[in-house]
């Protein structure tokens, strides 16, 4: 149920986002504005706004005369290419970030690292959607700190994390990734570029290996 309190548009967006990320709306499934509006008991306007925002994030597709549908699942080939790209760019970015780390930035990265998701409360699928967003923010922030805006934009435009997390729902994905993020933060805290690169590489490789079974 959507509460009619503050930020109705944002709540509608978050509700649809969570369904897409946790595969409650499977890849390729039709999404009707009317159906969602009735289900959430809101007008069509916030639903349309949410869907166009999700379209800009690559999570839904709008087809002329057909309407909206959930984006198809990333292909195995695209997945492999994406991880090759991440492994080329992100360990190096982590090393650069470690070399210029300040206490303020370290604090910001720690807050972005998704550790809050470990706390209970929301159901497991809601936590999964939440972690997908925090993971995206954490990796984006490391790239920001590393200081190459073109690299950051290149990865941001792939909406990497949203596509990866939609491959399958598994609580292990969140639990293990949190531990790996902690190792990266630890290297940042020690201002150790080599260790930061190693921890980031290990995290990305493990993330890839955790999700590979989705293609079997
Ligand atoms: Zn991560």
From TrEMBL:
Keywords: DNA-binding, Transcription, Transcription regulation. PROSITE patterns: HTH_GNTR (PS50949). Transmembrane segments: none annotated. It comes from the Bacteria. Pfam families: FCD, GntR. GO terms for molecular function: DNA binding; DNA-binding transcription factor activity. Residues 6-73 form the HTH gntR-type domain. This is GntR family transcriptional regulator. It comes from Reyranella soli.
């Amino acid at each position: 149920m959507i509460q009619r309190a503050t930020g109705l548009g944002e709540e509608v967006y978050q509700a649809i986002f969570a369904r897409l990320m946790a595969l409650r709306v499977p890849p390729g499934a039709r999404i009707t504005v009317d159906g969602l509006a009735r289900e959430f008991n809101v007008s069509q306007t916030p639903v349309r706004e949410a869907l166009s925002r999700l379209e800009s994030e690559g999570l839904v597709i709008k087809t002329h005369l057909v309407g909206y549908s959930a984006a198809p699942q990333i292909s195995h080939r695209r997945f492999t290419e994406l991880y090759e790209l991440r492994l080329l760019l992100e360990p190096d970015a982590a090393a650069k970030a470690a070399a210029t780390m300040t206490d303020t930035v370290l604090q910001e990265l720690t807050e972005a690292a998704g550790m809050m998701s470990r706390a209970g409360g929301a159901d497991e699928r809601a936590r999964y959607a939440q972690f997908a967003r925090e993971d995206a923010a954490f990796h984006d922030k490391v790239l920001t700190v590393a200081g190459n805006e073109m690299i950051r934009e290149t990865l941001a435009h792939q909406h990497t994390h949203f596509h990866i997390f939609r491959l399958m729902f598994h609580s292990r994905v969140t639990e293990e990734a949190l531990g790996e993020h902690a190792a990266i933060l630890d290297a940042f805290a020690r201002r150790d570029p080599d260790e930061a690169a190693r921890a980031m590489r290990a995290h990305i490789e493990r993330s890839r290996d955790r999700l590979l079974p989705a293609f079997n």
